[in-house]
Fold these 2 entries.
Entry 1:
Amino acid sequence: MDKVYISQLHVETIIGVYDFEKESKQSLYFDIEMLTDISAAAQSDDINFALDYAKVSERVIEHATAKPVELLETLLEQLAAIILAEFNTQQVTIKVSKPAAVPAAKTVGVEITRVKS
Ligand SMILES: Nc1nc2c(c(=O)[nH]1)N=C([C@H](O)[C@@H](O)CO)CN2
C-alpha cells in the first residue's frame, strides 16, 4: 500500500493535565502517515483523486485547537477517528510530540496506529 504523510505539523494549543497547562498554549508537533492507493491520483493527475495532505493538515489543526483535552492519548484517538472517517485512507499512524513537557528530554509523546473497520 502507498503512503501519504505529514511531518512535524506544528499546532499551538491548550493541552495538559496540570492547572498551569490550562492557562497558556503549548507547541505540539504531529507526524501522520496514511495508507492509501495513489494510483487513481497518479493516473489522472487530479487532486480530487488524491488524499490531500493539505486538507488533512487543516483538519488536524482545526480539531486540535477546538476543545482542550488533558491527555495526548485523548487527542490522538479523536484525530485518528476523524481522519479515518473523513479521508480516503485505510490505516493511519499519528505521532504527537510535546517538546516542552519534560525539560530534561528533547521531546516526549505518544504514537498510535488505527485501522478503518
Ligand atoms: N502518557 C502521557 N503522559 C503524560 C501526559 C500525557 O498526555 N500522556 N501529560 C502529562 C502532562 O500534561 C505533562 O505534559 C506536563 O508536564 C504528563 N504525562
Entry 2:
Amino acid sequence: MSLNDIAEYQAKRAAFINEDRALRRDYARSANRSAIELEADKVIRQIRAIEASSIWDGEHENIQHPFPGMEFLTAREVIIKTKLFKILTKMPKGALLHAHLDATVNVNVLLQLALQQPAIHVCASTPINATTIASTLPKFKALPKNQFSGGAGLTDPSYVANDWVSMRKARETFSPELGGPQGFDNWVIAALTINPNEAYKTHNTVTKIWQKFTSTFMTSTGLIRFAPIWPEYIREFLVTSIDDGISYAEVRINFLFKHMFGADGNENVPHREWIEMFGKVVNEVKDDMKKKGREDEFVGARIIYTTIRIISPEELEWYTEDCITLKQEFPDLIAGFDLVGDENVLKPLIDYIKPLLLFQQRQKELGLDIPFIFHAGETLGDGTKADNNLYDALLLGTKRIGHGFSLVKHPKLMQICREKGVMVEVCPISNEILRLTSSMPMHPLPIVINNGIPVALCSDDPAVFGSMGLSFDFFQVLVASEVTGLIQLGEMARDSIQYSTLDIEGKQRAIALWEKRWAKFVEEVANFDISDKLAV
Ligand SMILES: O=c1[nH]cnc2c1ncn2[C@@H]1O[C@H](CO)[C@@H](O)[C@H]1O
C-alpha cells in the first residue's frame, strides 16, 4: 500500500462527499462565499463545539439527559443562556412564512392587553378550587356594557357554572389559597401554553397533544377576536418579530368565525375590518420604524387566508368567495389560501376538491391570483389521509408546503418539489412539541435539505410553545447538524424571502436589504472575541 493509494482514496472520498452535498440548495452559492462569511461560520462552529461539552455534557437541575437539539420545553432555560442563542437573536432571519397569528404574541403580554379592557369577561364550567383548577379551562368573551357582570368570583363556592365575570374582578377575587391574582394569571397562562409535563408525559401522543393544543386556541380566541385588542395584538407581533430579525411576514389568519367582537361587545365586525386594521397597523409600524431610522428592518406583512378543515365542502364555498372578495378589496394584503387543523383527524384536501377547483376557476375568470399554500403531511402517517394530502397539495399547485413532515417518504414528490421549487415551511419546534419527533436529531429536515428542496424555518405557534421569534427554531436546527453552520442558516433566511409571495421588485428590495444586514451580522460574528466565546 503506497501513500499514493491513500491520497487517491482521500481525493475520491472528498469528491464523493462533494457530489452528495452538491444536491443541496445552499451549495449553489458556496463558491461565492466571502472570507468574512467563512470566518463567521467557523466561529459559530467553534462556539457550538465548545458548548456541546460545556453546556450539553454538563449537569443540569431538572434535566436528566441533556443533549443538543433535545426537547425544547425542557431545554429552553438552558438554551437562552448559551452564547450561540444570543448570537442567533441578532441574525437577520428574512421572512416568517408559517405562523398562525392567534399564537404569535407572548401570553403574558396578551394577558396584559386583555386586562386593560373592562369588556372582557371570563367563565368556567364549575367553581374553581384546588380540585377543579387543573382540569377546568377559562373561557373569555367581550360583553356589551349592559351585560357587564359583577357576580360571584370564579373561586367563590357560590359561583354559578358558566356565568360571566369581569376578567379584572375574577382576577382580583381569585382565592388566596389558589395564589390570588398571580394564581389567576398562572391558571390562564397554563391554558394558553403547553408545558413539558403535558408534551412529554400526560399528552405524549400526537392525538393527545393536539387536544391540548386545540384547547389553547379556544381560550385565546376570546381575548384576541376583539376589535380593541386585535390591532394592539398585531402590533406586538410585528414589533417583537422585527426585534428578532424578521423583516417580513406572511401570517395565517383564521377566518372560521365570520365576525369578531366590536368595541360595543357585539359580535359584529366582519372580515374586511379585520384586514383593514391589519393593514393599518402594518403601515403604522413601518412609519414608527422609519422614525427610528430602522426602516430597512421591516418591509411589511401579508395574510394567508385560512379556515379550518372541520367545515363542510359546501361551507368552504362561502370562505373561498369571501377570500376572493377580500383579495379584490385588499390585493396587497391577501397573499394566499390554506386549510388548517389536525390533518390526522379532520377532513383531507380531497374531500374539498370540488370547491377548491371551483376556487381556481373563479380566480381565472376574475383575473386574480391567490396561491394555495397548503398545510400537508404534518403527520407520522404513511399512506394515511394526512400523508395523502401531499399528493393533493402538489396536484393543486401549492406554492409552498406547510410542514410536509411526511414528504421524505415520497421520492417522487421530493423530486417535484425540487424541480418546481416548492418550498417546505419546516417548523422544527412545533413538530417536536406536537410529538412528530422526540428531538431535533430525529427530525427529517436534513433529508429535505439534502434533496435540494428549498426550506424556510418557521415558528408555527410560538406563543403556545414559548418559542417567540425565530431564534429558537434556528438554534434547534443549528445544534442538531454538523453540516449546518451559519452559512446554511443564512441561505434558508435568504430563501424565505425568495419563496415568499412578494412581487419581483418587492423581493429584490427585501433581499438587498437582507444582504446588507447579513454582511454586517457576519462581520460582527467573525470579530467575536475568542475569550468571550468561552464565557457562558
Ligand atoms: O401546526 C399546525 N397545523 C395545522 N393547524 C394548525 C397548526 N397550528 C395551528 N393550527 C390551527 O390554526 C388555528 C389557529 O389559527 C387553530 O385552530 C389550529 O388548529
